[in-house]
């Protein structure tokens, strides 16, 4: 994996079920960790999720519905559950499923690691794109393709956690060895020089080939400035487009010395104002999205793809379309303002001709030397 995302290593776990290794903040991980979380990742503090979200498990496949169910029969999104509650529910659902269908040869879970190269990570953050979102996308897309290839009429269950404690952003993934219907889920490679008399499916080769194709597609998106501009425009058209982009966090405001004392640099004040407006627009988008029915985007996608057209379009009421148009309007305003913000940010923090210093740093040097600005 020179540039992109790849399958790094795999193991099969037959002892007690352990989901703590998916959590980068667990006690075991803290004992083994040699570096601070995110220390080796470029612009980590700009794009990273809230610190409280570090170590969160992400649930996929048929486990998602089981884990989200409450005692009263209602459902709570797994993204809104407390981290420890989520881990406990996942552990219980996993073992209950294996007790019902049996553990093949004592296997409790397949473990593997999916890692993003440093080159791709830095390439994404250089264009203001959140590498965490892209890693999430590739994991979920790869598991969907895996199910379609090997368990088309069934469903698989898995959980994973994103880790930031090395020089490569990566994810640890646990795959349940039984499908929803109880069939065995394999995840292995054919031995070199051996022909498979039993029709071995060679799942690891399939996954590696998938990531190779995705990496080639991603490389083409960054081949030149025109391709980058086209790709960014495509991302902005996604219903959840704001998740793919991040805003650079502000540095401490440099002060300018005048006859009357100190005041905040007006260029920086402009940055702060635009940043506040961006946060407000993003909050408005999330609020409208929360108020929309959960099945709207599925029905909308179905109508575009021609799947169950009549049912899908009948479910899209006029007020729902109004909410959808409101989201698109807010997203348009968000990305227009974001482009202005990035340009202003670049102008303000761009190194100048002398001393290779930004405007803010140069002001501080002058103030120390007794100069008036």
Description:
This protein has 373 residues and is α+β, with helices and mostly antiparallel strands. It has 2 domains: 5-225; 247-368. 48% of the residues lie in helices and 11% in strands. It has 13 helices and 7 strands. The strands form 2 sheets. It has a 5-stranded antiparallel beta sheet with strand order 1-3-5-4-2. The chain has a two-stranded antiparallel ribbon with strand order 6-7. Helix 10 (296-305) packs antiparallel against helix 11 (309-315). The N and C termini lie far apart (51 Å).
Counted by DSSP, the helix tally is 13
Output the radius of gyration: 24 Å
Beta-strand percentage range: 5-15%
Number of separate strands: 7
The main pleated sheet reads as: 5 strands, antiparallel
Question: What is the total number of structural domains?
Answer: 2
Strand order of the largest sheet: 1-3-5-4-2
What is the SS-derived class?
alpha+beta
Please trace the helix and strand order, writing H or E for each element. Answer: EHHEHHEHHEEHHEEHHHHH
């Amino acid at each position: 994996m020179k540039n992109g995302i790849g399958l790094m290593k795999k193991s099969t776990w037959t002892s007690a079920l352990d989901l703590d290794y998916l959590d980068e903040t667990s006690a075991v991980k803290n004992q083994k960790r040699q570096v601070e979380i995110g220390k080796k990742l470029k612009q980590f503090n700009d794009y990273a999720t809230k610190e409280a979200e570090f170590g969160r498990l992400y649930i996929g496949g048929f486990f998602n519905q089981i884990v989200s169910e409450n005692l009263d029969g209602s459902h709570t999104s797994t993204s809104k559950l407390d981290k420890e509650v989520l881990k406990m529910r996942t552990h219980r659902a996993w073992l209950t499923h294996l007790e019902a269908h049996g553990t093949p040869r004592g296997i409790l879970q397949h473990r593997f690691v999916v890692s993003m190269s440093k080159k791709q990570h830095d390439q994404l953050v250089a264009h203001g794109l959140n590498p965490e979102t892209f890693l999430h996308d590739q994991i979920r897309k790869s598991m969907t393709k895996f199910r379609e290839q090997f368990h088309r009429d069934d469903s698989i269950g898995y959980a994973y956690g994103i880790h930031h404690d090395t020089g490569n952003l990566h994810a640890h993934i646990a795959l349940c060895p039984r499908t929803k219907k109880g069939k065995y889920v394999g995840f292995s490679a054919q031995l070199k020089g051996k022909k498979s008399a039993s029709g071995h499916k060679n799942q690891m080769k399939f996954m590696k080939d998938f990531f190779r194709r995705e990496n080639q597609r991603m490389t083409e998106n960054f081949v030149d400035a025109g391709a980058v501009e086209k790709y960014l425009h495509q991302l902005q058209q996604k219903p959840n487009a704001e998740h793919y982009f991040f805003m650079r966090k502000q540095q401490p405001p440099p002060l300018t010395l005048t006859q009357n004392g100190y005041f905040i640099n007006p260029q920086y004040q402009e940055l702060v104002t635009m940043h506040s407006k961006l946060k407000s627009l993003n909050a408005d988008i999330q609020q409208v999205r929360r108020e929309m029915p959960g099945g709207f985007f599925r029905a909308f996608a179905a109508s575009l793809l021609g799947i169950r057209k009549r049912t899908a379009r009948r479910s899209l009421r006029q007020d729902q379309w109004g909410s959808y148009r409101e989201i698109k309007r807010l997203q348009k305003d968000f990305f227009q303002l974001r482009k202005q913000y990035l340009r202003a940010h670049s102008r303000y923090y761009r190194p100048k001709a002398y001393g290779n210093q930004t405007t803010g740093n140069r002001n501080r040097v002058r103030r120390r030397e007794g100069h008036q600005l």
